[in-house]
Amino acid sequence: MRSVSELRKDIVSGDWVVIATGRKRRPHDFAVNKKHTSTKAQRVLCPFEKLHGEASYVILKNGETHQPSAKNTLLLEKEWAVQVIPNKYPAFGHGRCAVVFNQGPYQLQDGAGFHDVVVTREHDRPLALMSVSNIFSVLYAYRHRYQQLKDDDCVKYVSIFHNHGAEAGASITHPHSQIVAIPVVPPEVERSIKGSDRYFAKEKKCVHCVMIAFELKEKKRLVYENDDFVVFAPFASRTAFEVRIFPKKHSPMFEAIHNDQIKSFADTIKEALSKLYTGLGNPSYNFFIHTSPAFYVKTFEHYHWHLEIIPKTAIWAGFELGTDINISTITPEAAAAFLRTL
Fold it and tell me: Phi first, then psi: what are they for 177, rounded to 5°?
């Protein structure tokens, strides 16, 4: 059976890219289409309005968790709040893992892995407008599925991300996140881990712990904090109003978060997203979790997992694409000061 995608290695940078042939796009699909489907029609056509028949995990409105079965179908259909389902058009799926093929001077391998979608029930309620308890259920589903996937022989990294708005790549308006388990460590994550490792080798300290301590002391870029987590605008923000959320206590692994921490984490996500929603008029954004690879070893102990929120406040143009140097049109200090007032 043919793999749903290929991983191809850039011969110069060494970075992997995905050729997702399983998503079934044809050349004419890439032509610009300015037609828009009405909001009412979007809801009628939405595939996430009902409990999915292939859901692997369901959280009810009261917080109960269930594995779907013939005995509880009616209960789940009536009371579901969050469901985890397989992506209909996965970027990763069946295939041979850890088998690298040569094609002339190039290397490629099957895109072996898993691609799931985490869906919340209400069609018109984005995360920014959800309650902390609702966001808790979403994060609980993230952790549950992560723990299921991380020990698979094909999985080296589990990527958790959320796209909000068309400009952020959300092809379906109904709120949903994605969990993608892949057979390689992503280039951006690898660079982050290597940078953390270099700092630790030199200073014998976690670079993110140093950042957190400084931001809490100086407070110029601080947006919000609670007992367990802190939200701040990065000193070297890549785009206007970028914010990051870190656990205050050092931890290299997202999947090790316990329930009390999930509640605090949900609180900071609620605050960060609602401030962006109010202050910027519901902007499109992406958020993603950076954590240690799934094959955790002691050498990753220096790393500090976190969540990054990137609002779509600008469009990458020639300079950014050609140099990989981002331009932000507001200082992170001014962005944080504005968000703190909301």
Answer: -115, 170
Q: What is the mean pLDDT of residues 266-282?
A: 98
DSSP conformation letters of 282-317: S--EEEEEE---SS--GGGTT---EEEEEE--S---
In the prediction, which pLDDT does 48 show? Answer: 96
Calpha distance 121→173 (Å, rounded) = 12
Contact call for residues 136 and 262 (beta carbons, < 8 A): yes
234, 242 Cβ separation under 8 angstroms: yes
Annotated catalytic sites, by residue? 176
Regarding whether 175 and 201 lie in a shared domain, the answer is no
Structural domain total, the chain:
2
Residue 1 lies in a domain: no
Q: What is the CATH number of the domain that holds 179?
A: 3.30.428.10
Mean pLDDT across 66-85: 96
**Residue after which a domain boundary falls, among 138, 156, 183:** 183
Q: Of 151, 183, 215, which marks where a domain is finished?
A: 183
Contact 241, 335 (CB under 8 A): yes
Backbone angles phi, psi at 11, to 5 degrees: -70, -20
- Which structure tokens are listed for 261? 């921490």
CB 211 within 8 A of CB 218: no
Task: Please tell me whether residues 225 and 269 are part of one structural domain.
Answer: yes
